[in-house]
Amino acid sequence: MKYSSTRDQNLIISGTKAILDGLAKDGGLVIPESFPRLDLDQIKDYDFKRLMVEILHRYFQEFDQKDLIDMVDQAYLNTFDHKDIVPLSLCNDIYLLELYHGPTAAFKDIALSILPYLMAHAKKKLNITEITHILTATSGDTGSAALAGFKDIEGFTLTVFYPSVGISEIQKRQMTTIQGKNIKVFGINGNFDDAQAALKDIFNRSTEFKLTLSSANSINIGRLIPQMAYYFKAYFDLIKLNKIHLGDKVSFSIPTGNFGNILAAYFAALSGLPIKSLICASNENRVLTDFIQSGIYDRNRDFHQTSSPSMDILVSSNLERLLCLLSDRDDELVKELMNQLDSKGSYKVPEFIYQRLNEIFIGQSVDQHTVESTIKLIYESCGILIDPHTAIAVKAAQDHISEEPMIVCATASPFKFPTTVLKALGKDGDTDDFISLEKLSSLSHQKCPIHLSHLRDATIRHPLTVNKEALVALVKLKEHHDHD
Question: pTM surpassing 0.70?
Answer without folding.
Answer: yes
